[in-house]
Amino acid sequence: MSVExxxxxxxxxxxxxxxxxxxxxxxxxxxxxxRLKPMKIGDRLVHQVGLPWCFGWCTPGVGxxxxxxxxxxxxxxxxxxxxxxFMVTLKRRG
Length: 94
Description:
Blueprint: H1 3-9, E1 16-20, E2 25-29, E3 39-41, E4 44-46, E5 89-92
Antiparallel strand pairs: 1-2, 1-5, 3-4
């Protein structure tokens, strides 16, 4: 996550977090990096959260995978699933 999102949520690198979507939730470890930047869309600030895709990652071993959060909807023309972008809520675990 971006430094800005971590500050907004009161999180720091290494904190245990819960990431949830309409489909489910997973536990993860926060990785705060200046490599991700918030985007300004119109008058709104939008954040991105990057997640390990297939195998997950949670200290001290393998944890939940982002696949548990993805929607099952697909493009009506190509039937390609919308698994690369979806909305989540992020909060400290506990």
